[in-house]
Amino acid sequence: MSASRRSGATDELGPDDPDGPEESGGSDLLAALLDGMDAALCAFDADGVVTHWNREAERILGWTAAEAVGRHGFAGWAVRSADAEEVHARLMSAMHAPGRQVQEFALVTKDGGRVLVRTQSAAVRGPDGKPAGVYCAFSEVHAQIDLERSIALSEALFEDASWGVVLVDADLRPAVVNAHAARALGIGRTSALGRPLGELLAQGVEELESALTHVLAEGAPPAPAEMWVAVRTPEGERRRCWRSGFVRLASPLAEEPVPLGVGWLFVDVTEAKQGEQEGSLLRFRTNQLHRAARAAAECEDPAEAATVHLDFALAGFADHAVLDRVAGAPRAEGEEAAGPVRLVRLAATPAGAPGPSVPTGAAGLPVRYGEGHPALQCVERAGAVRADAPGAAERAREWALERQWPADAVHALCAALRSRGRTLGVVTFLRGAGRSRFERVDAVYAEDVAVRVAAALDLADAVRRGAER
Description:
six-stranded antiparallel sheet
């Protein structure tokens, strides 16, 4: 609002012809622009008389435009008398200085309070190019500092933050990506902009997009979320766990909140999560071994104790288990075999439904294992052997049946039964398609179980020989 045009005071920022409709329309436009500004604005003519005073200036200091326009400087009303001369000189010095001047003043409000403001002053030049006055935009220092902090925080987040920051627009496409996030995604900062998230991540896109959609509709969740994703790299897909936080972004300029998108902040916690999972898995398996040992100690028949160890080991580890015994005398390490290795099946878990291991092979007939079978390799090496079915489902079924295993087996792990320096047989653990392949840590656990099973079978042989005598 240009109060000078309503009060009749001289306006040094431009002539005013009340009879000219074009001038009147320009005056109204100028008044609307001044009143719509977020910053307080006042202007002085060459003599230091206030010519303009907008609504934000009125809000900060309490003086209305009618009270401000026409006064000579701030002396006697908007500054203390002791400061008036200095403030006036510093403001008017901008009229003869190049560019803008940034200064801080303590101004006086209408109710007698004081407020520290930061001003930006610059000269206003007339049609002849000579200085005709000064305009001064000002805001409360604390508001300016808050703005500067917000800007500094944004710049720091997008440059130096040690976690990923991505601004996602309402179409769920990255609009801004900081350096850390670009490295985590394995792509350049500009290359990621505007692309669908499905092009940036190989797995976990659905969960991430669902979270972003929820934030746009409902707002930020109360706590961070941990999401497993797969990132494409030159070496292949890399699985990562990102602890993610989300905030909804709304425009501060709109009367009603208008969602601009979502701020997504994340940090890679893969190693920590893997450590937690491995620790939890180790505690569970150690507990299973302990429970199995206590249950086996109550078995009168050592052979039954061997199957007890097998049943406890299956929990959370595999879908099926097969226990095979070397036909004839056990093989000592380094001992030359008199003939090909033959195995007799002692026990196996039910193929159709879960249940305890069932003793088999009472007739003592060798199992028809073909040459190169993982169980035979395990006996020959006296160590663990892993095997996996080919990718196609029908081929995987044929692969399992050819090896005398349940038809749904796709991953196998064979561990040698070793006791007193001899190989007594093989225990084979099998997983279906719903489980991952066996890893090295699984082989260590299988060998722990095999040691206990072998000790029970060795004891069963000793008991049987003693009974025969």
